[in-house]
Specification:
The chain has four helices and ten strands; from the N terminus they run H-E-E-H-E-E-H-H-E-E-E-E-E-E. By secondary structure, the chain is of the alpha+beta class. It has two domains: 58 residues; 208 residues, Immunoglobulin-like (Sandwich). The strands form three sheets. Strands 3-5-8-7 form a four-stranded antiparallel β-sheet. The termini are far apart.
């Protein structure tokens, strides 16, 4: 009997024909609860929409309101294999170095003189190319300066399509990461790149050549105004050619940016403004 009573109580809880209650509530009670939650969630959605709308009014489509970054930009090299910073190949085995030359070809294609002449302007060198807005009137899109591939001379791939890899005198390309509004160099002194071997390999690196001369990033390519404001921006590059590096041995190399207003590193990131990689050229058949 107890089980029958419990079963009867559950049936009445689900639907009570005497009081016409479903799950303990009448139709009007359920209607009021549903109406409350509909109104409540409409209010929350409206509040969220209003908050987002107000926030978006404070943003600039072409420039971030806040930038959380280090004072020193990072550096990267090309070519590089996958995520490693190692360039290892054998002069006599074309398949060991053709991936490097193909990577450089692909990377430098947008810098072809013909493409740069179509998209960008011949700027006045050795001075920052400032394009300020006029009050609330945005000076967009902003112009960009030409960086012609031929500036890299022996490392341009134009005269030597193998970039020196087949002769044991390889080229690497260095670029600084883009930072909106950064003005590297002051008083007309352009930032420049220097490369050297780590302490234990100091006698292995040999002679280096830099392109452009002195490995400098001309001031006219700065400041950078952002991807949307400066759609055709071409990052300046520096090429380094290793003329007589020791072969059949690992040579650990570090390149860094030098500027009179860019710190060379910080406690937060000791590798800011520099890049390290290994270079090994094998000559054994």
């Amino acid at each position: 009997m107890a089980k029958d009573g419990e079963k009867s109580e559950w049936k009445e809880f689900i639907w009570n024909p005497r009081t016409r209650e479903f799950l303990g509530r009448t139709a009007s009670s359920w209607g009021l609860i549903l109406l409350f939650y509909v109104v409540f969630y409409i209010f929350l959605a409206g509040l969220f929409t209003l908050t987002m709308y107000v926030m978006l009014q404070t943003l600039d489509d072409h420039k971030p309101t806040w930038q959380d970054r280090l004072t020193t930009p990072g550096m990267v090299i090309r070519p590089k294999a996958d995520e490693t910073y190692e360039i290892v190949y054998n002069i006599h085995k074309t398949e060991s170095w053709d991936m490097y030359t193909e990577t450089l070809d692909k990377f430098l294609t947008p810098y072809n003189n013909s493409i740069q002449a179509q998209k960008n302007y011949e700027c006045t060198p050795d001075q920052h190319f400032l394009q300020d807005d006029s009050g609330d009137v945005k000076n967009n899109p902003k112009r960009s300066c030409q960086f012609n591939r031929t500036i890299l001379e022996d490392c341009s791939g134009m005269e030597d399509r193998y970039y020196g890899y087949q002769s044991g005198k390889p080229c690497i390309i260095i670029k600084l990461n883009r930072v909106i509004g950064m003005l590297p160099g002051k008083n007309g002194q352009a930032p420049y790149v220097t490369c050297g071997a780590k302490t234990d390999d100091a006698d292995k690196i040999g002679e280096l050549m830099y392109f452009p001369p002195n490995g400098s990033f001309n001031l006219m390519y700065y400041p950078y105004y952002g991807k949307k404001a400066q759609v055709n921006y071409s990052q300046p590059l520096v090429a380094v050619k290793f003329l007589n590096i020791t072969v059949n041995q690992d040579v650990n190399i570090e390149c860094k940016i030098n500027a009179n207003n860019i710190p060379t590193g910080s406690e937060r990131d000791k590798f800011a403004g520099r890049v390290s990689f290994k270079l090994r050229i094998n000559t054994n058949n």
